[in-house]
Design brief:
The protein contains six helices and 42 strands.
C-alpha cells in the first residue's frame, strides 16, 4: 500500500505513522514493550507500496572525513544511516554531538550503521568550507560530513529546524525523524531496532565506508581553537582557554607558559593540576590567583586555585541541565553549556567581585553564581554558593522592555548607529574603562568592532573580513578568523584577541594601531605558536660591593616542578622607580647552567607596587642533584623630590635539592628586603 499522506519526498510523509508510534511509546512500561512497538512500526513502514526515498546527494558537494564523495544509492545500500542536519553555530546542534558520538561507539559501519553530518548553514559565513573544517576539528567530529551550502537536501525534505535527525533504512528509505536535542533514548531505540529488523531480513551489509579523517592531515598545533582570553590586572598574566586542547593556559605577557592545566584529551576530573581535566572550556575570569572556568561541554563552572595548584567544581553536576530557574547550591545545580563568565558586584556593594555572571548558552539566559553572600536586584538575600537565573526566559528570541520583537536573522556587516549597525554572530565583548568604549568580537564577520555607548556608533576597528592569516600588520590590514574572545590589558594599551580559527592570540596595540601574534612558548623554549622573537640578550650588571647577599633555606623539588620566586622589595618612603632606566632581575646558576636552558633568565620590574613573580621549572633531565640558583635584582629609583637618583642591588641565593620522589605543592619563595 502507499504511504498515507505522503507528499513526495518530504518528512511530512512520516508524520502520521511516527506520531502514532510515539503516543504508544508513552504508555509502554518495559523495554520489551518499546522494542516491540518500534518493530511493528517498521513492519508497517517497510510494507508501504512506495518508499519515502531520500534524494541522492547532489553532485559537486564538498565532503569531509571521507576518501571520496558518498552516494546514497551506491555506498549506503545495506546500511542504517543517520543524517544529522545541523549548523555549527547552533548550541542545540552541539548538544546533540555527544549522543552521536555515543551511537558511533556502540555501532560501527561493520555493524551496519553510519552517521552523516549534513551541514546546512544558518549564516553565510557557515557556508565556507574552511570554517566547517574548523568546526569538524573543534567538536571532534569523526563521521562523514557534507557541506550542503545551498541547503538543497534540507529544502527537498522540508526540514525546518536545527538540529534534525533523519534515520534511513538500507534502501535509502526514510524511517524516522527526530527534531531538536534531548532524544538520545529514542535515537538509540530506533536505530537498534532498525538494525535488528533489517538484519532479520538479511538486508544489512557489513562493508566498510572509506573514512579519512580531516584532522589526520594537519600538523600538531600547540593552541587549538582558543575560545577566550582574559588578563590578570595585577600581574599582567594572560589566562587562555585552549579550547581544542581541553586545557587552560596561564602565560606571562611575553608568552611563556607558567601553567598548563588539563588536556590534551577531554575529561571531567578535579584535583591537582597534573590530574585535572576539562571538556572544551570557554570563558575564563581571574582574581586574586583564582581562575573560574566555564567548562562548557562538561556543563560545569570550575575553580582553579593557582596557589594550591588544585581544580574544583563550584557549579553544575556534569550533565546538561534543563532547569531554567536554579536556586540550589552551585555543586547541586544542573546548568547547560556555560559559555562565558565575568566578575560582578552584588546589590549590597559591600565588596567587588562577589558575583560570577554566567552566559548560559544552553538555555539562552544570564545566570549568577554567588561567590559570597549578597543580594541581586529584585532578589532576596542569597547565601554564598547559590546559582540561579538572573535574566532571560529561556526562549530563543530577541525581546526586552525597550524594543519590539526583532528578527533573529537580521545580521550583516554594516557600520552604523544603533539598530542600523549589523553584526554576524558576535561571541565576545570587553569594556575599555580608559576610553569608555566597548570592543566586540564580530566573529562571523572576522572583525573587531568598537561601540561608543554615548553616540551608539558601531565601527570596524580592525580586520578586513578576509580569513587569510596575516601575523603582523596595521589595524586596517589585519585579518582574523572567527575571533571568539577579547580583553583589555596593560592599563588600556593592549587588546588581546582569541583568534579562534587561526589558533592564535593576537595582540592589538591601541596606541600604535598595530597587530601582532603573541608567541606562546614553553619553558623548554619550544616555540608552539609561530616564530618566537627572542629578546635581545641582556648583560648581567656587576653587583656593587655594598649589595646585600641573602642565602635562602634549601628547597627540595623534583624534575618538571615549577618554583616561583615572588619579589617583595621595599624602597625608602616616597621613592619611585626611575623612568627610562629599566629596573631588572636576572637568574643565574653558575656551574649548573643546564637548569636555565630554555627559561627566561631576566626580566624588567616596571612597578614597585606590583613586582613580578619569577618562575623556574626544573628540567626533566637533571645533570646534578644539587645546585644553587642566584637571583640578582637591580633597582633604579629617585627620591621623593627627585633630587637624587640611585641604584640598589641585592643577591638572593637559593640552594636546590633535586629528588626523584614526587613532591607536593611548593609554596612560592618570597624574596623580601627593605632598602
Amino acid at each position: 500500500m502507499a504511504a498515507p499522506g505522503a507528499r513526495g519526498r518530504s518528512l511530512s510523509g512520516l508524520l502520521p505513522a511516527q506520531t502514532s508510534l510515539e503516543y504508544a511509546l508513552l504508555d509502554a512500561v518495559t523495554q520489551q514493550e518499546k522494542d516491540s512497538l518500534v518493530y511493528q512500526y517498521l513492519q508497517k513502514v517497510d510494507g508501504w507500496e512506495q518508499d519515502l526515498s531520500v534524494p541522492e546527494f547532489p553532485e559537486g558537494l564538498e565532503w569531509l572525513n571521507t576518501e571520496e564523495p558518498i552516494s546514497v544509492y551506491k555506498d549506503l545500500c545495506g546500511k542504517i544511516v543517520v543524517l544529522d542536519f545541523f549548523t555549527y553555530c547552533c548550541i542545540n546542534c552541539i548538544h546533540l554531538l555527544p549522543d552521536l558520538h555515543a551511537l558511533e561507539h556502540t555501532y560501527s559501519d561493520k555493524d551496519g550503521l553510519l552517521i552523516i553530518g549534513v551541514h546546512s548553514a544558518k549564516f553565510p559565513n557557515e557556508k565556507v568550507l574552511d570554517n566547517i573544517k574548523s568546526a569538524v576539528l573543534r567538536y571532534n567530529i569523526t563521521h562523514p560530513m557534507v557541506n550542503d551550502a545551498d541547503a538543497s537536501l534540507w529544502q527537498e525534505l522540508e526540514v525546518s529546524c536545527w538540529p534534525t535527525l533523519v534515520i534511513l533504512g538500507p534502501r535509502g528509505n526514510m524511517l524516522f525523524s527526530l527534531i531538536g536535542e534531548g532524544h538520545k533514548d529514542k535515537l538509540f531505540l530506533y536505530t537498534s531496532i532498525a538494525l535488528k529488523y533489517y538484519k532479520d531480513r538479511g538486508q544489512i551489509r557489513d562493508n566498510k565506508i572509506g573514512i579519512k579523517l580531516y584532522k589526520d592531515s594537519l600538523p600538531p598545533s600547540p593552541l587549538l581553537f582558543p575560545g577566550k582570553v582574559t588578563v590578570d590586572q595585577v600581574t599582567n598574566r594572560l589566562v587562555i582557554a585552549d579550547t581544542g586542547h581541553h586545557r587552560i593556559l596561564v602565560v606571562w605577557k611575553n608568552g611563556q607558559i607558567q601553567y598548563s592545566i588539563g588536556g590534551p584529551n577531554p575529561g571531567r576530573k578535579d584535583g591537582i593540576f597534573s590530574e585535572s581535566t576539562f571538556n572544551s572550556p570557554q570563558g575564563v575570569a581571574i582574581m586574586n590567583n583564582i581562575i573560574y572556568v566555564a567548562d562548557t561541554e562538561n556543563h560545569l563552572i570550575r575553580k582553579i586555585d593557582l596557589e594550591a595548584e588544585k581544580v574544583s567544581t563550584v557549579a553544575g553536576i556534569g550533565i546538561q541541565g534543563t532547569d531554567k530557574e536554579g536556586g540550589a547550591k552551585g555543586e547541586q545545580q544542573p546548568i547547560s553549556s556555560p559559555w562565558d563568565i565575568v566578575f560582578g558586584t552584588s546589590g549590597s556593594e559591600v565588596q567587588r567581585g562577589d558575583i560570577l555572571w554566567i552566559a548560559m548558552a544552553g538555555t539562552h539566559q544570564i545566570w549568577a553564581l554567588l561567590l559570597d553572600s549578597g543580594k541581586l536586584p529584585k532578589k532576596n538575600e542569597l547565601t554564598k554558593g547559590t546559582c540561579l537565573r538572573f535574566a532571560g526566559s529561556g526562549n530563543e528570541e530577541n525581546r526586552n522592555n525597550a524594543y519590539p520583537h526583532k528578527n533573529l536573522f537580521a545580521f550583516g556587516d554594516v557600520d552604523g548607529v544603533g539598530i542600523n549597525a549589523k553584526l554576524q554572530h558576535p561571541l565576545g565583548v570587553t569594556w575599555d574603562k580608559k576610553r569608555n568604549l566597548l570592543y566586540v568580537a564580530d566573529s562571523y564577520n572576522h572583525k573587531i568592532k568598537v561601540v561608543d555607548p554615548k553616540t551608539k556608533n558601531c565601527t570596524t576597528l580592525a580586520g578586513t573580513g578576509d580569513t587569510n592569516n596575516v601575523t603582523s600588520s596595521s589595524f586596517t590590514e589585519s585579518t582574523f578568523n572567527e575571533p571568539g574572545g577579547l580583553c583589555v590589558g596593560e592599563n588600556g594599551q593592549l587588546l588581546y584577541v582569541a583568534d579562534t580559527n587561526n589558533h592564535q592570540i593576537k595582540v592589538m596595540d591601541l596606541e600604535t594601531k598595530m597587530v601582532s601574534v603573541l608567541p606562546i612558548f614553553r619553558s623548554e623554549n619550544a616555540v608552539v605558536d609561530g616564530p618566537f622573537l627572542v629578546e635581545k640578550q641582556k648583560t648581567l650588571p656587576k653587583l656593587p660591593k655594598s649589595a646585600p647577599s641573602i642565602r635562602l633555606s634549601p628547597v627540595t623539588a623534583c624534575a618538571g616542578q615549577t618554583l616561583q620566586f615572588k619579589l617583595r622589595l621595599d624602597l625608602p618612603s616616597g621613592s619611585k622607580l626611575t623612568e627610562g632606566v629599566p629596573s631588572c632581575w636576572f637568574l643565574t646558576a653558575e656551574g649548573n647552567e643546564w637548569l636555565l636552558q630554555g627559561q627566561m633568565p631576566f626580566g624588567d620590574i616596571e612597578n614597585i607596587s606590583s613586582q613580578p613573580t619569577i618562575s623556574l621549572q626544573i628540567p626533566d633531565d637533571c645533570l646534578s642533584l644539587e645546585a644553587i640558583v642566584s637571583i640578582s635584582v637591580f633597582l633604579y629609583y629617585c627620591s621623593a623630590d627627585s633630587s637624587a637618583c640611585m641604584m640598589k642591588a641585592i643577591l638572593f641565593s637559593q640552594p636546590l635539592q633535586i629528588t626523584d620522589t614526587q613532591q607536593g605543592c611548593i609554596a612560592p619563595v618570597e624574596l623580601r628586603y627593605v632598602f
